[in-house]
Amino acid sequence: MTDASPPRPFGRIALIGIGLIGSSLARFIRRDGLADHITVCSRTHATLDTARELGLADSITTDPRQAVEGAELVVLSTPLSAYAAIAEAMAPGLRPGCIVSDVGSVKQCVIRDVGPHMPDGVHLVPGHPIAGTEHSGPEAGFAELFQGRFCVLTPPPGADEAAVQRIVDLWQRAGMTVEVMDAGHHDKVLAITSHLPHLIAYTIVGTATDLEDHLKKEVVRYSAGGFRDFTRIAASDPTMWRDVFLNNRESVLEMLQRFSEDLTALQRAIRWGEGEKLFDLFTRTRDIRRGVIDANQA
Amino acid sequence: MTDASPPRPFGRIALIGIGLIGSSLARFIRRDGLADHITVCSRTHATLDTARELGLADSITTDPRQAVEGAELVVLSTPLSAYAAIAEAMAPGLRPGCIVSDVGSVKQCVIRDVGPHMPDGVHLVPGHPIAGTEHSGPEAGFAELFQGRFCVLTPPPGADEAAVQRIVDLWQRAGMTVEVMDAGHHDKVLAITSHLPHLIAYTIVGTATDLEDHLKKEVVRYSAGGFRDFTRIAASDPTMWRDVFLNNRESVLEMLQRFSEDLTALQRAIRWGEGEKLFDLFTRTRDIRRGVIDANQA
Hints:
Chain A is α/β, with parallel strands linked by helices.
């Protein structure tokens, strides 16, 4: 190259998986010119064709090892259950100094499943950009998805600081506020702020699906009363969420147990007409909403 | 009057209660010129002052009997627990031919609490405009709140057809699709589409409120992952919702029992790593979302 542009932050980037998050990442890397070359890897040919048609890939492959050859940065954006096999397959292609990151919603399992396969000199920096919609697939992505959201990085103890900083910079360029924390702490926090809400939404929409026909047909019609919000959450990608629950089992079960106890207490209050107990809870929960609004998240 | 305008649909309208729904109704009646005179009744002087300042009231009073004197239409928009006492108090002021309606989220209890107090010749037409926000009070209302939503009327058997039609017309003018159904059926449908979702949202936000401090402070920060939607629902008016649960006890407990069984089954699937069960449910629930979108409710 003969022009005077500053060097791009990354030479070659390999994106393994190109769904909602992976394709949004590709779009923003493209938009801001952050890589010389983007390789997209997926096991599905149709997905790769779509990625190329959308202009997200300079090269495409179904082979993880081929995808990561010469890459400075590899980002996994597949369902969590695919991580171990991908890590094993791509390991021989990783060059020293390469950073391997991801976007998964659970973080301890990444260190468990990917960490052991990493060659010496390769830096594992697991990450979780907390952003999404109920839509899936490469067509659903958009470069602004991450704007104004939080991103959590969970590098294992002793991780290379320069490598971590490069991932911090990447997500900050996407408009995110980046936090570094322990993977176990991340998994506990997300169990209550994300995983349990999804589990509950899936459950109540499922309960409605099983209603007698004369009720079920009216559930959709009258969904504006609250149910509608749950159907949006419960339309999220089934594979991704299955893997979240299977891989954050302990924290999800712990939060679910607390929730069930609280729900049983409310059930009892309704049965026995204890209006004050209901009123007290319903008043307390308003305060959390104010906190959310103050935090500019609403 | 000497001009040639068509007669207004109602002479005098009395609005008992002037919160989010009552004030939205007042605004739309004003906007469309549907009444000669609006009387607003509340037990709180400050609320009445606000209603007057907002231009929603031609006259104000704390006395339900005085409020309904000469009214062609009376609409109750208070919490459900106030209905019986208001009905008893206003009964002597109701004139024959007057229509008494309401906007409450439970309907069998209206027939139970208000019906017995209605003098001969007064028409009780309970109604439920299914619309709202998480905000409360007369300032929170807006005339367009009802636009594009459903309204359910549950006149008791043998109700005056002309009276029912006038209430159908009123809500249709507000932009609503109006359905007439049995009060018990309404209460069952709304138990799953509205009451249970609110109960669950209140519960999970409460569960988060009770977390250990080191987790709690991060719940707000990372609420974008799903929790945020629940905080909005759980910010709804505490008195109104207490009364909903106390007055639709049987249907809410029935739906809550089904939900709890389904949640326990999912909990078990997570504990034993039964990914297929999770995947199957998460796929089924997507169909309901499609129905909601098709019904133009999203």
